[in-house]
């Protein structure tokens, strides 16, 4: 089983907090405690070797497979620890103010270079198209007075094709995101030490985002998926063999040993297969095709792909 952060001496895996929905698949979440390396060669980003006065339980990193695909870094700090006062932490994100800032960023920031952002936007647009499609196809049934000429065939068929196509594009990007996940492990935080004896009678630690050393591809505006910006990402990914800048499709060995054991990859795969099959019904819904087919062809090429494709969406979810 692949273990992220294996090369990070300052991050220790907590086996009691390693879990997943299915025992035969890779875990989807784990906790890593921050502790200084014992060999005296500490890293500025992951701790310092001469820091025995800070408890390892004060700083924890919560790794989740979905967060890893999306380029997120969840930091956990124990405020009840006797060493908590020695750690200057970033502001909490689980507050109303932080939530409001996040919603505001959604309206003002458009990271078009981020494949995770594109996936979210594309599936949102596709869902909007299908809502519009339902007005064309379903509304005339309970309210016949709202129907206009060829509404179901033309407006319903065209919007069905557009919606299915958008879902197919989003599913392709979703697969690329899953195949280009950051596997070497990206802590995402810099732990810096400074002596402040006059303030707290000991060493003081500051935790701040390590934007320059992030190994995820999301902050990199030069590529859609692949390597991150930082030199740190190159160094760490080379250690673990994850330094490829792009993967169109994993090797057979990678499929057997990693991807087919990742529930996130399997969910993306079922989504992609479902969307591809569902796309068939998008073509057969078009005017000039749908109205020229026999009932047998409609059952086989229009209704059946919707049932099978929709089932793929359910399994993926």
Q: What does this protein look like?
A:
By secondary structure, this protein is an alpha+beta fold. It is built from 9 helices and 7 strands; from the N terminus they run βββαββαααβαβαααα. It has helices at residues 65-70, 96-108, 115-137, 151-179, 197-200, 231-240, 252-257, 263-284, 295-316, and strands spanning 11-19, 29-34, 59-64, 74-77, 87-88, 189-195, 203-209. The chain has a 4-stranded antiparallel beta sheet. It has a 3-stranded mixed beta sheet with strand order 5-7-6, with no helix packed on it. Helix 3 (115-137) packs antiparallel against helix 4 (151-179), helix 4 (151-179) packs antiparallel against helix 8 and helix 8 (263-284) packs antiparallel against helix 9 (295-316). The protein is elongated.
List keywords for this structure.
four-stranded antiparallel beta sheet, single chain, alpha+beta, 317 residues, 43% helix, 9 helices, three-stranded mixed beta sheet, 7 strands
